[in-house]
């Protein structure tokens, strides 16, 4: 049973910009070359963008009774230490100036929150993981087994 699940999909604004780009490419090519050329270039660009967004935004964060999954990385929960929910500048700094180069990062620039999870496995080279999340308190609660209280 999964106690937390989140997909870090790209925001709607990215899809709007991609659509504008595809339309622009269509027009730029269709005017001098013709409709077929414009449709080909626009369709190809649209396909590349859709596949890229689905792959990049397909990263999942999942917590169940045995494991934490963040993107392609998986670790048993017995190897997790302290968990810290990060928002605002703390989240920004965790991915930037305060980041250990050996840390595992699941970074999505369009997600403003994060969770830092200490790794206690002596065989794991990463001292901690920093995971982008839209619900840092919820992910931290799922990892620690505590419920989230809001005031």
From TrEMBL:
Keywords: Membrane, Transmembrane, Transmembrane helix. The keyword Membrane applies. The keyword Transmembrane applies. The chain crosses the membrane at residues 12-30, 36-54. InterPro entries: DUF3093. This is DUF3093 domain-containing protein. It holds the Pfam family DUF3093. It comes from the Bacteria.
């Amino acid at each position: 049973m999964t106690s937390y699940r989140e997909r870090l999909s790209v925001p709607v604004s990215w899809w709007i910009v991609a659509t504008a780009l595809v339309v622009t490419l269509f027009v730029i090519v269709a005017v001098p070359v013709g409709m077929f050329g414009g449709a080909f270039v626009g369709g190809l660009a649209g396909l590349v963008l859709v596949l890229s967004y689905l792959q990049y935004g397909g990263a999942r964060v999942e917590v169940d009774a045995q494991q934490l999954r963040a993107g392609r990385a998986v670790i048993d929960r017995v190897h997790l230490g302290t968990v810290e929910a990060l928002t605002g500048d703390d989240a920004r700094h965790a991915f930037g100036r305060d980041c250990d180069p050996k840390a595992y990062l699941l970074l999505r620039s369009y997600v403003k929150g994060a969770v830092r999870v200490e790794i206690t496995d002596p065989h794991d080279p990463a001292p901690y993981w920093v995971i982008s999340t839209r619900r840092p308190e919820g992910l931290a609660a799922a990892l620690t087994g505590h419920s989230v209280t809001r005031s």
